[in-house]
Design a protein that fits this description.
The structure holds 2 protein chains of 2 kinds.
Chain A (H helix, E strand, L loop, with lengths): L16 H33 L28 H34 L4 H15 L3 H12 L16 E3 L1 E4 L2 E4 L1 E4 L3 H29 L5 H19 L5 H15 L2 H26 L1 E2 L2 E2 L4 H23 L1 H22 L6 E2 L3 H9 L4 H12 L1 H4 L3 H9 L4 H6 L3 H4 L4 E2 L2 H5 L4 H12 L5 H11 L7 E4 L1 E6 L3 E4 L5 E3 L1 H28 L2 H9 L4 H31 L11 H12 L2 H30 L5
Helix pairs in contact in A: 2-3, 2-20, 2-23, 3-20, 4-20, 5-6, 7-10, 8-9, 8-10, 12-14, 20-22, 21-22, 22-24, 23-24
Chain B lengths: L1 H37 L17 H8 L2 E6 L7 E2 L5 E2 L1 H14 L5 E6 L4 H6 L5 E2 L7 H4 L4 E3 L4 E3 L1 E6 L16 E5 L3 H12 L5 E5 L2 H10 L4 E5 H13 L8 E4 L7 E3 L2 E3 L3 H20 L6 H9 L5 H6 L5 H6 L6 H8 L3 H9 L27
Parallel strand pairs in B: 1-4, 1-5, 9-10, 9-11
Antiparallel strand pairs in B: 2-3, 6-14, 7-13, 8-11, 8-12
Classes of the chains: A mainly alpha, B alpha/beta.
Bound molecules: glutathione (GSH).
The site of glutathione has 20 residues of chain B, from helix 6, strand 11 and strand 13.
Chain lengths: 624, 382
């Protein structure tokens, strides 16, 4: 028998997988570039034909509208405007998620209750809330808030000025609240250190418990450590004032870095990461016998990684704005945000006490002196001379009124002056700064501040204070909630928050109920047979299993809640969609604003769902 | 991989098709324009894309109806009726335009728009023109991508608050610390911010979607004041006083000199001069009729008189009798402006009919004829 050894023939080109793969990859790449090159100008053309211009200039240009609430009610640029909207969306989303989860869990358990009334009430709640459109519910709560207490000093049956536990008014709801005060951030350092210590103690004790079976109370001891640190820190936190100087130092260092330095550093990092990845990739394929044969796919990956690294390196070099913005933000973070939180700040000017005594002797009131100094220390910025200051005071203008005329970017640069009597009274810089911010914002007058100081001096550097809601006369006799007491909820926030909470809560309740029911009865019975108490069986057997079932759909509900807040525009809540509408109306940039919205919701959803997925994976049974 | 490639090809094909579509649309639009330009009666081509640079006039004629963007409700400017029609000075100008273009003042479809969405609605081609208390501003004329016609109402922004704490002479210092309500997407928002900050007043602005919501919020006490164009404030005040909802003069509109200039008039898509001419001259025809004392009741007589040797030559030209070539150049029927005056009326007629009942009068103000010291002035029709 003749064996013919046939030489393996190369397959024809159209069936050669190697070639096909390369062709496909290259076509894909060029197709992608092609889309960019052909479609983008085409789209721009078509848009131009419809007078729809497309650009991003509005992000840096001045818009002109006030926003009802948020981190900045008079944002200077388009991007800041959108930022205010985004933060508002996140604010209502996060508080809604927390409240809806608590409510949903309670109602879900109530649905399983043996108590007839509890059970039926929960059912009625779920069925009615789920079946009414969310928008209607928002309108409903908005209408409800229009029945609260009236705030009008000239009308009878209105809420009077004063402090309240809860002040439900038509202009908003004031709640009493624990607020950070003078020493808060210093105190937080103690808490964080305590928490880290507690974590390690917990780990250590838990290990002993597992190994020996001896009860070591890991949770309790961890809590104890945090508490001890908290208590000690409450009294001695002022010793940490130097942290502010460290922050300032970092700010100075960051400010001194030239833009080109960061550009090069970032580019270097990008190249390094690419190189490092490729090296790691090759190492993985290295066996004792040498480098394994690389497949086409391996080459694609390495080439892509290399191209991406070079791309980003180039991007950092070419777009210097990335580096300069990062540096600016970094400097601001340390100097303007972090440093003032501690007992040090560059924006504060101390005035020698002799100077003040002399002025008092000359018959000036403390209030006038304070106004004078405030203007004097900022004379350069305001472009005035010391002589002008007297004229300004004579006209009866206050410092905040003078600042109002400053361009926005200068406002943050103005120096904060600490009325010397506060220093005399032994206030620390941080305390004085805190109080002074109130005066600066026009929230209280100097006279009120002094009164506040009289009674609050002993408490002025507590880390936190209990702050009751307050209705006060503001400006030219308008009754409103005091912005500095308690926390205030606007009618818009109230309507959105309560509506999404109740609505999502109803869905969560059903998910919770289903999750608990899905744990088979055998589990409870078996745990009973093992001698576990009812509570133990719920805690160790049923809930952990139920939670695994509940978690994924819960994540979906959170996503829904996030997106549902976009209805806020209907009840005057300035979330991202609402401020975006006004922005696009003022600038004519409809499409960029829509892209901005899409980018925001997409990013938000992806972040939320990756958090959910992360926990979900940790919760899953480890299967082997 | 092959699968992915397939996907890509399909996607590319779709994109390519999409591009092709839009370019044909462009050509269609232009053809229709020329058709409309040469022969108005045969302009019954397929509905054209009004979103493109030109061709609105042809599109309106082809459609047989005018799509007019109005507000969701502004007293005496646009008051929507249950049957879909609308009354008010803005609604009447929609009607006048329909009378000029289509010969029928009732061939109008009213599209209520909120302030924030109006320009998008216009630019997307959903409406042909906006008569919607729209202020002519530089940025809207340029950045936002609109063009504006002659101002039909010279307005200015005001504030309205309870009479027990404000007077007609109140100023910024009196609103310090107040919450003000208005609607989003307006010049109002911009003006009030500047006015308050210049006057050293710190205010909180609550913006809602429609002005009627701003009124509700004001009445409920959610805000201390409302602000918008003074005409809107006076309209809300007087109509509520007439209906007995509030006591007479329990609210006051201030300050006496408005805080801004708000010339309200028609807005249309940029770079469509054929359509711009039609809208502009429709408005001017009502001004000219006002100047000549012609109105819907005496228009037939006036037209007849203009035809005689001793008649007013400008009226003769405007009614298309003595020089039909101007009307042809406008691509309108020769009696287009006769239709406007006979079916809708002259400026004074439209104004008095809508605005007098809410206490707004032309006499002695900016909205009077130029010969009376006002700003209502039309270029000569010749
Ligand atoms: N003229 C201003 C304001 C226009 C405006 O929105 N006016 C109010 C009141 S006069 C209005 O029309 N509201 C009716 C609505 O909200 O639909 C502008 O063009 O921005």
């Amino acid at each position: 028998m003749a064996v013919t050894v046939q030489k393996q023939e190369r397959p024809p080109i159209w069936r050669n997988t190697t070639i096909l793969k390369w062709v496909a990859q290259i076509t894909f790449l060029f197709g992608f570039i092609g889309i960019a090159v052909v479609v983008v100008p085409q789209v721009q053309d078509n848009l131009a034909g419809r007078d729809i211009t497309f650009g991003w200039d509005w992000l840096t240009s001045r818009l002109s509208f006030l926003i009802r609430e948020g981190i900045d009610t008079d944002p200077a640029t388009g991007s800041r405007t959108m930022l205010v909207g985004m933060v508002n969306t996140l604010r209502v989303t996060i508080s809604g998620v927390i409240a809806a989860t608590l409510l949903g869990t309670l109602i879900g358990i109530a649905r399983l209750s043996n108590n007839w009334i509890v059970n039926k009430l929960a059912t009625v709640y779920i069925e009615s809330i789920r079946n009414i459109p969310l928008l209607l519910q928002m309108f409903f709560w908005s209408a409800i808030s229009a029945t609260f207490g009236i705030l009008d000093p000239f009308e009878a049956d209105t809420l009077e000025a004063g402090k309240y536990w809860i002040a439900a008014t038509r202009k908003g709801i004031g709640l009493s609240w624990i607020k950070p005060w003078g020493g808060f951030y210093q105190w937080m350092i103690f808490i964080i250190v305590g928490a880290i210590g507690g974590y390690y103690l917990h780990r250590h004790r838990f290990k002993i418990k597992e190994e020996t079976g001896r009860e070591t109370y890991p949770n309790l001891s961890a809590l104890g450590v945090v508490t001890v640190f908290g208590i000690i820190g409450w009294f001695i936190h002022p010793v940490l004032g130097f942290v502010g100087h460290i922050a300032e130092f970092f700010g100075t260092v960051v400010g001194a870095i030239p833009t080109i330095g960061l550009q090069l550093a970032l580019a270097g990092v990008a190249l390094f990461i690419g190189f490092w990845w490729i090296k790691g990739f090759l190492d993985e394929r290295r066996t004792p016998a040498g480098l394994a044969k690389l497949t086409d796919d391996d080459w694609f990956r390495m080439i892509s990684a290399g191209v991406a690294a070079v791309f980003f390196a180039g991007l950092f070099i070419v777009v210097s704005g990335i580096s300069s913005t990062t540096l600016d933000v970094g400097e601001d973070f340390f100097n303007r945000w972090l440093a003032p939180k501690f007992d040090a700040t560059t924006n504060v000017v101390e005035v020698p006490i002799d100077e003040i005594t002399a002025q008092v002797a000359a018959g000036l009131s403390l209030e006038d002196i304070a106004e004078r100094q405030e203007l004097l220390v900022n004379a350069d910025l305001l472009g005035i001379t010391a002589a002008d200051v007297d004229g300004i005071i004579d006209q009866g203008l206050t410092a905040p009124q003078v600042y109002a005329a400053l361009p926005d970017e200068d406002k943050t640069d103005r120096l904060v002056f600490i009325p010397p009597h506060k220093l005399v009274d032994g206030l620390s810089k941080a305390q004085a700064f805190n109080l002074n911010v109130l005066v600066e914002n026009g929230d209280i007058t100097i006279a009120e501040l002094e009164a506040e100081l009289e009674k609050d001096l002993s408490r002025a550097d507590l880390p936190m204070r209990w702050s009751r809601a307050e209705v006060q006369l503001r400006g030219s006799n308008f009754l409103d909630l005091s912005p500095t007491s308690g926390i205030n909820i606007t009618p818009g926030f109230f309507a959105v928050w309560i509506a999404v909470t109740l609505y999502t809560g109803a869905f969560i309740a059903e998910i919770v109920r289903a999750g608990i029911l899905a744990v088979s009865k055998g589990q409870t019975e078996a745990s009973g047979a093992l001698g576990l108490s009812r509570a133990q069986s719920l805690r160790f057997i049923v809930l952990p299993q139920a939670f695994r079932i509940i978690f994924p759909p819960l994540g979906n509900q959170y996503l829904n809640l996030f997106k549902n807040t976009s209805l806020g525009i209907a009840v005057a809540y300035p979330e991202i969609v609402s401020v975006g509408f006004t922005t696009s109306n003022q600038t004519g940039q409809t499409l960029p604003v829509i892209l901005f919205w899409m980018g925001f919701y997409l990013t938000g959803s992806l972040v939320l769902s990756s958090i959910v997925n992360f926990y979900n994976r940790r919760l899953q049974l480890v299967e082997r | 991989m092959i699968k992915r490639l397939g996907f890509l090809l399909v996607a590319l094909a779709l994109v390519a098709a999409a591009c092709g579509d839009s370019s044909t649309e462009t050509t269609e639009g232009t053809t229709a324009t020329t058709t409309g330009g040469t022969d108005t009666t045969t302009a019954t081509t397929t509905p054209t894309d009004t979103g493109q640079g030109g061709g609105t006039l042809a599109a309106v004629k082809a459609r047989g109806e005018l799509n007019c963007g109005v507000s969701t409700g502004a007293v005496a400017f646009t008051e929507l009726q249950p049957d879909g029609s609308a009354t008010g000075i803005d609604a009447d100008y929609c009607r006048a335009l329909a009378a000029a273009v289509l010969g029928d003042a009732n061939a109008v479809v009213f599209f209520p728009t909120t302030a924030a969405e109006r320009f998008d609605v216009l630019k997307a081609g959903d409406v042909d023109v906006l008569f919607r208390n729209t202020t002519w501003t530089a940025s809207r004329d340029t950045d936002v991508g609109l063009d504006f016609g002659p101002t039909t109402y010279f307005d200015g922004q005001g504030l309205m608050g309870p009479a027990n704490r404000f007077t007609a002479t109140s100023g910024p210092s009196d609103v310090d610390g107040a919450i003000l309500c208005t609607n989003a997407g307006t010049t109002t928002e911009k003006n009030i911010r500047e006015w308050a900050s210049l006057g050293g007043a710190s205010i909180t602005l609550e913006t809602v979607e429609n002005f009627s919501e701003a009124m509700d919020a004001f009445i409920a006490g959610r805000c201390d004041l409302v602000t918008t164009d003074a005409s809107g404030l006076v309209g809300e005040k007087i109509s509520r006083e007439t209906s007995g909802e509030i006591d007479v003069d329990s609210w006051v509109v201030f300050p006496q000199a408005p805080i801004s200039k708000e010339p309200l008039g028609p807005a249309y898509r940029q770079n469509d001069s054929e359509w711009a001419d039609v809208v502009d001259w429709t408005v001017y025809s009502t001004f000219i009729a006002f100047e000549k004392g012609v109105n819907s009741t005496n228009v037939d007589a006036a037209r007849a008189a203009a035809g005689t040797d001793a008649g007013d030559p400008e009226l003769g030209r405007m009614f298309g009798d003595s020089s039909p070539e101007i009307m042809a150049a406008l691509n309108l029927d020769s009696d287009a402006f006769y239709n406007v005056i006979s079916q809708v009326g002259s400026y004074d007629e439209i104004f008095d009919r809508n605005l007098n009942p809410v206490g707004l009068f032309r006499q002695g103000g900016l909205n009077d004829l130029w010969t009376e010291g006002g700003l209502i002035y039309a270029p000569p029709f010749r």
